[in-house]
Amino acid sequence: MSKYGSNNLMVSISCLAYNHEKYIHEAIESFLMQRTNFAYEVLIYDDASTDHTASIIREYEKKYPDIIKPVYQSENQWSKGVRVDFEFNYKRARGKYVAICDGDDYWTDPYKLQKQVDFLEKNDEFSICFHSIQTIDENGNKVSIDKPKKKVKRVTGLSDIIKNDYIAAVSVLFRNGLISDTDFYTLSEDLYFDDWIYHILNAEKGFIYFFDEPMAAYRLTRAGLSRSTDKIRKIEDKLKFYGRLKNRFDDEEIVRICEKAMSKLEVDRFIEYAERMGFRNAKEALPDMSQVDLILSSNFRQLIKLFLLRFFANKYDQVKATYKKLKGVNK
Fold first, then answer.
1. Are 15 and 103 in contact (CB under 8 A)?
2. Is 140 part of any domain?
3. Pick from 14, 201, 289, 298: most CB atoms within 10 A?
């Protein structure tokens, strides 16, 4: 018998919080509003918040001691390189399934967990299910329903999720116990992200199902990890990650996917360098990237950027700003 899911405890909700005093109430209330025919636990990890986040969590802990299971830190662990979600929440999760929702996001459908659990209970060949989300700004205003950004099939698998992380963490439910410590830490070492790693390791053990209905809200904040991480760091981390995936799998299709993604990322890195220091200096900074490699590895969008940076550098920022304005992009 599995050690997960005993005593009808079906879901462990993993919630990371850091300086979320404006939002944590809404997140916790969205957990407590879930209408289910099973028990669930809420594992909240506060990474030494400097505002009133911890005190708000403590109020809920006193009121719902059988559901709210917090960990409070006196020193921030993420800044020390600790994988706090895996180390402090995933490892103590006792539910048969794991759901994720950070302290500045929240769920909008009271039947979200029931729908997802019902599906995985009836379909053993699936290890993950997820749904679309509503994106909101820091003040709670709706931005768009944009995750996945591109159309996703109802059923996807390992090769799909390796190509692109189309699963919003706030939407996912996956089977507990499929991820080993060794696999997780080998793939995640020194990277700025980890949700994508969860999805890939889980997808090794089963298919992925998509509910085409928004059941959660994802908040765009200036302090969010993804938005605050330098673009070159993001690109270089993804290059390292694809290199690790390429070494992990013997499957020819997956190896090709990784090589293609790495070629595209290398062009993106060159473009980012050229935007910051100029085309000539970028070539000196990245001498292994020849002009032939740039052309052969680039897609149409990248070729246009390279052409502008090479021959119209003085107008590049103006063209880029105009394009974003036409596309309705504010950043």
1. yes
2. yes
3. 14
